[in-house]
Amino acid sequence: MADLLVSSPNSSASTVTANEPAILQKISSKDYNLAIWKRSLAMNYAGLLDSNIENVRVTVPASDPETMLRSEMDQCGFPKSAASAFLIEDILDLCELFGKTVHYPKIEIRVELVTGNSCWKFHSDYVEIRLITTYIGRGTQWIDQYDIDRISDGLEPLDINELEPGDVGLFKGKLNNNQPVIHRSPPIDGSGEKRLLLVLNPVKD
Questions:
Q1: Helical segments of 56-189, H only
Q2: Are strands 32-37 and 14-18 parallel, antiparallel or unpaired?
Q3: Distance CA 101, CA 24 (A)
């Protein structure tokens, strides 16, 4: 596996990173609470911001997400463009990868346009596992155990990690183990920045 990197040994559960999608399978190990596939985006999605798009939130069968996803994105104003086509295909590919990892019958797909400080405080998610990737703007931030201890003492973190656009992260949440990833959306309020991101959650029923 190329470019394998592990975060600070201060954590009892660490981050594992590589430039191949197979790295995401490492999330099944108790040694890791965050697996990151480093990748470059194949498309510039900035043109989607010129359209009046709305946030997408739809639960789809893990075995066949395409029909419901395309219908929902049409209803939410995503244009008939190359960028939309690439986005949909990428989401479908990530749904397939996610399904192989979590083995749940359904997947919740969220495509969110963020223009302010959404979830800007460090927190963990009330899920077993969550996939996050950013297509436009800055990526999700997280901290290691040293800085988790600092913010628990009311101090500011010293070293904030951040996903690059295109990176795919599998984040363990509170329902998975006692070492969920402590993360946040980067604060962008007042900067004029916009972010377009994808979130995939497993759904049991």
A1: 66-75, 82-102, 145-152
A2: parallel
A3: 8
Q: Strand pairing of 106-114 and 161-162?
A: unpaired
pLDDT digits (tens, 9 = 90+) for 69-104: 999 999 999 999 999 999 999 999 999 999 999 999
Q: Classify residue 11 by its DSSP letter.
A: S
CB atoms within 10 A of CB 152: 9
**Which phi-psi region, left, alpha or beta, contains residue 77 (left: φ > 0; alpha: ψ -120 to 50)?**
left
DSSP state of 99: H
The pTM of the full predicted model, rounded to 2 decimals, is 0.90
For 3, the token pair is: 């470019």
Q: Tell me the pLDDT tens digit for each residue of 8-62.
A: 333 456 999 999 999 999 999 999 999 999 999 989 999 999 999 999 999 999 9
Beta 129-136 vs 32-37: how paired, if at all? unpaired
